[in-house]
Amino acid sequence: MTRMPRIATVFGATGFIGRQIVGALARTGAQVRVASRVPESAFFLKTCGAPGQIVPIACDGGPESVGQAIEGAEWIVNAIGILFEKKHATFDRIHAELPGMIAQECARKGVMRMVHLSALGVDRSQSRYAQTKLAGENAIRAVFPAATILRPGVVFGPDDNFFNQFAAMARVAPALPLIGGGKTRFQPVFVGDVAQAVCNALIWPPVPPHDPRGKIYELGGPDVLTFRDILNRIAIWTGRRRPLVSVPWGFARFQAAILEHLPTPPLTRDQVELLRTDNIVTQGALTLADLGVNPTAMDCIVPAYLERYRDGGPFGAQDAA
Q1: Which of 36, 47, 102, 225 is exposed most, by the fewest CB atoms within 10 A?
Q2: CB 74 within 8 A of CB 258
Q3: What is the b/e burial string over 23-40, where b = at least 16 CB atoms within 10 angstroms of the residue's CB?
Q4: Helix, strand or coil for residue 41?
Q5: In this structure, are residues 281 and 187 in contact, taking their beta carbons and an 8 Å threshold?
Q6: Full-model pTM
Q7: Number of domains into which the chain is organized
Q8: Can you give the residue range of the structural domain that contains 33?
Q9: Would you give the distance in Å from CA 255 to the centre of its chain?
C-alpha cells in the first residue's frame, strides 16, 4: 500500500530562510503548505516542488487561522522573524506571542514534530530582539516541550540582508562604519545548511542519542570573524576597498535613533545593542554536526553572489580581451 506523502506547514516561508526550507522539504517528497496572510504572495514558491506539491494557504495569525494551517500536518516549521519593529509587527507579537500560539496549536492537534528558528546569542544579548526571541523559545517549550529549536547565526546566501547590504553600501559610500571598533565576532552560517538542519530535525527517528526532539542547536559555519574581518573580505570579493572608520557605541546609538524612523531602517538602536554581544556558537552546544550537516565555508558561496557589486559585474576581475 502506497503511503501518502507527509504534510508540512511552514510559517514564514516567503522569507530569505523560509524559501530555502520550502525547497528542502519538497525534496523529501513532503507536501508543503505555505501559511501566509496573502497566499498569492507565495505563488512563486510553487516552482520549488512538483505540480501541486507546494500549497499556499491563508493564515491571518489568529488562533483559528493558525489551527487550520496546522490541521492534518505532521511537521511544523516556524521561520517567522523581523529585524526591526513596525506599528503592527512588534518583537513581542512576532517573536514571542505568535510562536507560543503555533506551539499551542501543535500540542492540541497532535503534531509529530515542530522546528522553531530562533537566533544565536539570544541567551546572552540584552537587546529587545534577543529577549523576545528567548521569550518565544520559552513559550514554545512550555506547551510543546518536544519542539526542536535552532539558533542560527548571521545567515549568508544569495539573497541575504547582511553581506549584500554592506557590498551595496561600498558601491556608494566613501567609507564603511565599524560600530564599536568592529570587534564583535560572528560565525556566519550558509542558508542551505540551515534548511538541511531543519529537514534533518524533522526526519531523524526518535532514537537516542540522536533524537532531536526537545533539544536546542546553535548553528554556525566554520569561520569565526570579527566585523572588521568581514568588511575586509567583502572589499576583496567586490574589488571595492573602502576606509573603515571606527564608530563609538554612543555615536552609533545617536545615528540609529535617527535612522530607525525610516520605512526600512538600515540601523536601529536595538541592533546597536545586539552588536555588543558576540554572535558565535557556545562551547559545548549542539551544532550543525549533531544534525548531520557539514558546515559550508563562506569562501565557497559568498564571492560568487557578490560579484555583481564589482565594477563591471562578474567580469570586473578579468583582464580586458
Answers
A1: 47
A2: no
A3: bbbbeeebbbbbbbeeee
A4: helix
A5: yes
A6: 0.94
A7: 1
A8: 7-158+188-221+280-294
A9: 26
